Amino acid sequence: MSCYQKLGQAPVLPFHRKVEKLMENYRIDPNKGLEFGLYTLGDHLPDPATGERISAQQRIHEIIELAKMAEAAGIDFFSVGESHQDYFVTQAHSVVLSAIAQATEKIKIASSSTIISTLDPVRVYEDFATLDLISNGRAEIIAGRASRVGNFDLLGYDLHDYEELYEEKFDLLRKINAEEVVNWSGQFRAPLKNARVLPRPQNGSMPIWRAVGGTPASAIKAGYAGVGMFMAHLGGPVSVFRRTVDAYREAAQHSGFDPAELPVATAGFFYAAETSQQALRDMYPHINEGMKRTNGQGFPKQHFAQGVDKHNVMNIGSPQEIIEKILYQHEQFGHQRYIAQMDFGGMPIDKLKKNIDLIGTEILPAIKKYTSGAEG
Amino acid sequence: MKVVGLSGSIVGSKTRTAMDYAVKTASEKYPEAEVTLIDLAEYDIPFSDGRNYLEYEDDAGYVTQTLMEADAILIGTPIFQASIPATLKNIFDLLPDSAFRDKVVSMFVTAGSSKHYLIAEQQLKPILTYMKAQIVQTYVFMEEQDFYRKKIINEDVLFRIERLVEDTVVLTETYKRIQEEKEATYDF
To answer: Across the interface, do A304 and B187 touch by the CB < 8 Å criterion?
Structure first.
């Protein structure tokens, strides 16, 4: 009848059988409160204040340094993305993550995101399972479709297959995660016959999330599949992204999953300074100039100025304002993890350090205090 | 100021003829402006496949980037089958959602029948609005009898083109001032 019902009957998912333990599979304990993470796209842009760009080598070292500082401040999670285009430096994001795994001890590490469409899920799984072993069980995969398409030409895929490539490969990735012996055939990869994809992660499987760009369309697919949703948002009203989260949970419910067991992570711009005015002043040129270079359009000041309002998803402002914003978002989204992007557009490392200090000393303790013990 | 004239059809001559006048007026009256004419008939442009405009190469890359860098765009369009031509719509599809934010856009419309007078109003304007253009509200509507062998023979049409070019430039300058004043209030 409706597409919901059809999909609800579809035999999806290994996870389906153990619904009650889903959140545990994602290694998330909602009783410990909202997790706080950092993510970088691995952009490599000039600092607009000086016009200078650090070397690719220095940028990669600074990303590793950032992860170490995050761990020292008590931040829960750190992730690195891949973008195959000019002004980016972490195309080999799993290699960078491997260095981070070795340089840290406690912090969870992940991709944000792995463009599974143009990679071989078997190789991705081998890499990330290895990463999970190196990090002693801290690795996760966030798989996305790419908002830019340079990787299709570069890696030899046809953009016409954009959606199918993602869906097929993402399903295979999850199958490999769930089954030690895999039998599979599809359109975009040689079939697998009694294939054992090794090594296995520390606990046999690892968290795999679907990256969603903020619109309900992709969120609904994550919901149908009963897979954790990593929702990126640049800016805009909380109420708009709330619709995406609601659509995700509704789709999950229709597919027979318990939405309360499915984790949601949100990710977006973050910058803390003594005052909101200072935060806007520090961050705006980086966002505006960086987006001009990477997307071809700047960020309108008018929109950015509205970003400090409590009802806007951008977490920019004084520590107290940010705490209130994140708590408001938590109330609206009921999410389990918030991931901050603060290093975009050539932000100098000393400013990042200052932000991490503010997170560790002021923001994180307040957020944990008000969200721990709360219902997921 | 960067002004781009876009002749939105690959067939016929009326729209190109009208755009030649518009672009000539703009260059002569505003020598400080950088005026470019893009006639889609001279380019080979694929249909949009949804990628970011920076990722198109060759003609599509040139046309989209030239439009994105413009302060003002003079759009010339014929009316085919009671609508804008697919070639022009494709240009819109190649660009991002808010491609015309902070740009002034005006319309120069040619048609084979007076029955098409409201097509620009009802079909082109909503697209420009969606793409966040500052639209010059009036447009020039030109018909078959205004042209003869690739020339505009109706003097009145020439005046209307001249006025619309003027209005476009004045609005672009005014909008730029408003925007600068507004941005200055932000203190960041």
So the answer is: no
What ipTM score was computed for the predicted complex, to two decimals?
Answer: 0.88
DSSP state of B46: P
CA torsion sign for B48, B53, B55, B59 is positive
Instruction: Count other Cβ atoms within 10 Å, centred on residue A111.
Output: 30
Neighbours of B31 (CB within 10 A): 8
User: What domain range is B163 assigned to?
Assistant: 2-184
CB contact under 8 A, A148 and B183: no
Min Cα separation A57/chain B (Å): 26
Domains of chain A, each with CATH number or no CATH: 3-371 (3.20.20.30)
Q: Which contacts qualify for A16-24: CB closer than 8 Å, 24 or more apart?
A: A16/A226, A16/A256, A16/A257, A19/A226, A19/A257, A19/A258, A19/A261, A20/A258, A20/A261, A21/A261, A22/A226, A22/A257, A22/A258, A22/A261, A22/A262, A22/A263, A23/A261, A23/A262, A23/A263, A23/A336, A23/A376
* Closest chain A C-alpha to B128 CA, distance in angstroms: 17
Dump pLDDT digits (tens) for B12-62.
999 999 999 999 999 999 999 999 999 999 999 999 999 999 999 999 999
Q: Does B186 touch chain A (CB under 8 A)?
A: yes
Instruction: Provide the whole-model pTM.
Output: 0.91
| B58: CATH | 3.40.50.360
What are the two backbone dihedrals, phi and then psi, of residue A274, each rounded to the nearest 5 degrees?
A: -55, -40
Residues of A in contact with B52 (CB under 8 A): 147-149, 295-296
| Other C-beta atoms lying within 10 Å of the C-beta of residue A90 | 23
